[in-house]
Write a structure and sequence with these properties.
By secondary structure, this protein is an alpha/beta fold. The protein contains 15 helices and 14 strands. Strand 10, helix 9 and strand 11 form a beta-alpha-beta unit. Helix 1 packs across helix 15. The radius of gyration is 20 Å and the shape is globular.
Length: about 375
């Protein structure tokens, strides 16, 4: 089967993006099963990696709209020969609905992007996005939701489309993300062997609340000098994060996004992953941390309430006031079993998730 995956990232540039991780690892999992996979993405040249053909539609895109326009130009020059096109935003499918209406289409909803858009850019762009979302979803043959919460939200908005909705979580690479020797990995980036390390991975954007994590950590560090915070990502709040990190007196390290293999090493040397997002579909990095034997402190969003067992593999934040208290409790007052953390996410391995997605492709392509 010829499968085209669509996502607006450059495969040569690491990003703090769950979608990039999803597309890259899904593509490799499908290719390993003998499927013919291409990814329409950004970049300067065609490349091949892990059995995937990366086809850039534009060197760069400064917005989602620019990427959609680039997709339309690409399709006007080269009609798709794919049996299935699988995108990760409703608007990315619009060029295919218009220019390749007969090709079968799949969409993965990683959460409600309209909510994030309204918070970041205001009411008018969010309304325009909803118009495109409605147009696209009504013309899409199968819609994958990464969590039951995402399916419920979109089922309420589009009850007529309920038969097209499927809950299939994002997969994780269990061979890459696994418990490691934390001490040897810390030496590589200069973190003391005896430190208690909390890590955040994600976009430095307001909805991810990275500033709250830094502020709460600084309070922890005042009473626990061996505490360290590792912030991995980028975004609009980067400069403000670095300014506030000065108050941590060297206890806070801020890093740009890293490739998956390096992320696995960073998670493996951590004592805790901390998230504080206002909204999430399925935070893949939380599953990757748990697979690495690392507990998670995070909010009651997405699939986290279904995965996190208090005191077993992490803690759920009930309100923003809980963040610092639970970070302290996770780092200093709880004995974690890496095997229990990993066991809680074994069902998210790609060896289970990829066949479920492949079955969706076969169902609509037959």
């Amino acid at each position: 089967m010829r499968i085209t995956l669509v996502a607006g990232f450059d495969p040569e540039r690491p990003a703090a993006s769950g979608v990039q991780s999803y597309v890259m690892t899904l593509g490799r999992a499908l290719a390993a099963r003998g499927e013919e996979v291409e990814v329409l993405s950004l970049g300067s040249k065609r490349s091949r990696s892990g059995g995937i053909e990366f086809v850039p539609v534009s060197p760069r895109a400064n917005s989602a709209l620019e990427f959609v326009v680039a997709l339309a130009r690409h399709l006007s020059r080269r009609k798709t020969s794919a049996h299935v096109v699988h995108a990760n935003r409703p608007d990315d499918l619009i060029p295919f609905h218009v220019l390749s209406p007969r090709v079968r289409k799949v969409l993965t909803l990683h959460g409600d992007h309209g909510v994030h858009l309204r918070a970041r850019r205001g009411r008018a762009p969010a309304i325009l996005y909803r118009v495109g979302e409605r147009y696209s979803l009504r013309r899409t043959q199968s819609i994958i939701c990464v969590s039951p919460h995402t399916k419920e939200a979109f089922s309420n908005r589009y009850p007529q489309l309920i038969p097209q909705f499927h809950v299939i979580p994002a997969g994780i690479d269990l061979d890459l993300f696994h418990p490691r020797d934390r001490l040897s990995e810390r030496q590589k980036i200069g973190i003391p062997e005896t430190a208690k390390v909390a890590t955040f991975v994600g976009r430095f954007e307001p909805e991810k609340e990275p500033l709250s994590i830094v502020d709460q950590f600084i309070r922890i560090h005042e009473s626990s000098p061996d505490a360290r915070l590792l912030m991995v990502g980028d975004g609009r709040l980067d400069s403000e994060l670095r300014r506030r990190a000065i108050s941590g007196h060297g206890s806070i390290t801020i890093m740009r996004p890293v490739p998956q293999k390096d992320l696995a090493l960073l998670l493996g040397m951590s004592d805790l992953l901390v998230l504080a997002s206002r909204h999430e579909g399925l935070p893949t990095v939380a599953l990757e941390a748990l697979a690495s034997g690392v507990p998670v402190v995070g909010p009651r969003v997405g699939v986290l309430p279904d995965v996190i067992e208090s005191g077993i593999n992490g803690f759920l934040i009930q309100s923003p006031l809980d963040l610092g208290t639970l970070m302290q409790k996770a780092l200093y007052e709880t004995n974690w079993a890496p095997a229990a953390c990993r066991a809680s996410v074994l069902v998210y391995g790609w060896e289970r998730v990829a066949p479920a997605i492949l079955q969706v492709y076969h169902d609509i392509a037959s």
